[in-house]
Amino acid sequence: RTRCLEAGMDDYLAKPVRESELRRVLAGFAPDQGDPDAPAGLAEQSGATSASIDREAALELMGGDRELLREVLELMAESLPALEAELQGASNSSDLGAVRRIAHTIKGQALAVASEPAAAAAATIETCAADGDLAAAQRQLPVLSHALRQLLLEIETAL
Question: Pick from 17, 26, 29, 94: most CB atoms within 10 A?
Answer without folding.
Answer: 26
